Amino acid sequence: MIQSLYQLTNKGSLRALSFILAIILTISIFTHTEFFALNLGGISPIYTLIIFWSVATLWIHGFGLELYRTIWKLLFLPLIAYFVAVLTLGMIYFFV
């Protein structure tokens, strides 16, 4: 199951999307530090950690690193990171 989900996103165009989302989300973290510190970090630091996990996953997938073990494919599954990244960017730019 994990292998098929990971192979679903193991395409060049989705890797490019991961790279672009990683760049945008990283820039957003650096330019909206107050939002991350007060709104997300003040409520619960777990939200900020999930966002940082999403950024790391998108960078790993965007660079094209090959993951061979199933546990690493589960931990760095890009589908979940896409959802978190889009949700975070929506919160930053549309709900603030």
What is the element layout, followed by pairings?
Layout: H1 2-8, H2 12-31, H3 33-40, H4 45-63, H5 70-75, H6 78-94
Helix pairs in contact: 2-4, 2-6, 4-6
Q: What would your notes on this structure say?
A:
The chain crosses the membrane at residues 12-30, 36-60, 72-95. InterPro entries: Cyd_oper_YbgE. Pfam families: Cyd_oper_YbgE. This is Cyd operon YbgE family protein. The radius of gyration is 14 Å and the shape is elongated. It has helices spanning 2-8, 12-31, 33-40, 45-63, 70-75, 78-94. Helix content is 80%, strand content 0%. 17% of the residues are buried. It is mostly helical. It is built from 6 helices and no strands.
Write a concise keyword list for the protein shown above.
single chain; 80% helix; 96 residues; mainly alpha
Report helical residue fraction: over 70%
The run of helices and strands is HHHHHH
Amount of beta strand: under 5%
Tally of DSSP β-strands: 0
What is the mean pLDDT? 87
| Alpha plus pi helix count | 6
Low-pLDDT parts are none
Helix- and strand-based class?
mainly alpha
Gross morphology: elongated
If you compute it from the alpha carbons, what radius of gyration comes out, rounded to the nearest whole angstrom?
A: 14 Å
The major pleated sheet works out as: none
Distance between the termini: 38 Å
Organism: Gallibacterium melopsittaci
Pfam family, one: Cyd_oper_YbgE
Transmembrane segments: 12-30, 36-60, 72-95
Protein name: Cyd operon YbgE family protein
Provide a quick synopsis of the model.
The chain has helices spanning 2-8, 12-31, 33-40, 45-63, 70-75, 78-94. It is mainly α and 96 residues long.
